[in-house]
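DATA SHEET
Item: assembly model
Revision: 1
Owner: S.N.
Input lines:
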Amino acid sequence: MKKLNDIPGKNPFKVPDNYFEEVNRKIISATSDIDKEVLKVGIFNRFRTSLLIAASVAGLILISYTTIKLLTPARVNSQVSEVLHEMSPDLYLNDIDLSSLEENASSLVLSEEVPDVSKKDIIDYLLNENIEINDIYAQL
Amino acid sequence: MKLNNIRPDDNISELLKTDLNKGFQLLVEKYSQKLYWHIRRLVILHEDADDALQNTFINVWKSIGNFRSESSLYTWLYTIATNEALALINKRKRNAAVSIDDLESYFTTSQEGSTWFDGDEAQLKLQNAIMKLPEKQRIVFNLKYYDEMTYEEMSKVLKTSEGALKASYHYAVKKIEKIIVND
């Protein structure tokens, strides 16, 4: 016997009877007891590529949106003003000069002369409103 | 059954994605014998091979999520099994309860050894010669001679170039034949 080829390449080792059926059962049983956390990591890794793509797209959208917002400040202010007005119309009062408003208003309210309306029209209107004629003349 | 006859693993790879438990069960049924014999030829003792095989599949189960479907399932399994076998050999070197340096003596004189060896005298000489090879050469020889693994597949398992593996196998055969002739 000088060459390797002269020796039959047969497996010379033995195993106990039914060893492989038993060891397969042992392996399945042992692995089913292993913490499921391991599998969660595994599932993450399996979908790792998809998750990375989704995260990249989301990041790109966020960056684009932020850039657009930053480059259009006027539009932003206008939108904010509209929103504030809807939320609280009283806020606009801060922008009005209240003292000048009162001056202009009082001149109109206190005026005895109402332009383009004759005394006869006023008397007719008051009579329609069931006001006594004597009370009307008392005021004139 | 030769390794070439039990490929491809497309169905198992797909099943591992959709039904992990069923896919893993199929994987164990398909590969436990092949991996056992690969480990057994390295560690020699049945008890050691049994431990290493179970550890191999537990590691496979734990890291199945890291397996990339584009790589070969069976070369990945052989890598894990080889590492488990080597880890066990190193452990045994540190805590050697049974010396199996001389296989001929172990398998012919000890009751434990003779129980698990079924070869003739020539095969015993061959196993003895294989045991005298350096560790890496022994793995290369076993994968080529018994498992009929291609050099391309072997290079994935052992992370070594095909040229280096060819040279390693060539020297292993020369050494074995020399040992057998001198015996």
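QC remark: Helices of chain A lie at 19-32, 37-46, 48-71, 73-87, 98-109, 119-128, 133-139.
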